[in-house]
Amino acid sequence: MKIDVVDINNKKSGTIELNSSLFGLEPRPDILNKVVRWQLAKRQQGTHSVLTRSEVSYSTKKIVRQKGSGSGRHGSRRAPIFRKGGVYKGPKPRSHAFSLTKKFRKLGLKHALSSKYVSGNLIILNKAEIDNQKTSDFSKKIKKLKWGRVLVVGREDNPKSLNFFNASKNIPMLDFLSVNGINVYDVLRRDTLVLTKAAVDSLEGRLS
Questions:
Q1: Residues 115-174: pLDDT tens digits?
Q2: Which residues is 113 bridged to in the sheet?
Q3: Could you tell me if 107 and 163 lie in one domain?
Q4: Residues 41 and 22 in one domain
Q5: In three state form, how does the secondary structure of 56-89 look?
Q6: pTM for the whole thing?
């Protein structure tokens, strides 16, 4: 599986061989769906809470006498059937997270990468580096490339890569992640996935 490598000006600068076990799979929506749900479930705060019958602030006095009034035999205004009463079996703080095996999470990332390759929305960048960190200049360059909503993966610890990161901060439809931060949700929510050559090597070593 060969694909062209381009520079930041979208000029071809060579080719690279992609691992078919990472980029050549038939994308399975069920696997991608489960991994995305796993990611989003971990994000939920789970702080929703209501007051139960024992927690609402109200008088505990018996409403009416037990017999002879013609009404129900209610013992407290805190009962759920009354206005301002407690809520019966309402939500309480809890974790929405569920477990997913490391093997399945790896498989999900492979299918996400493959989905971008199959759809033609995978771009291999020689290096994610620019000479200055001016967002205005970088934004014009990105618009010329016509990548749409884009995720760039391959941040490295050098000044030019840091320029790329700083310049991309205020561009709303562009995310720049290190290779360790790549995940299924961010890959799928962007139109185009841009990987540096170094990121490809790192992913093949990690996921193979």
A1: 999 999 999 999 888 888 899 989 988 888 888 899 999 888 888 889 999 999 989 889
A2: none
A3: yes
A4: yes
A5: CCCCCCCCCCCCCCCCCCCCCCCCCCCCCCCCCC
A6: 0.84
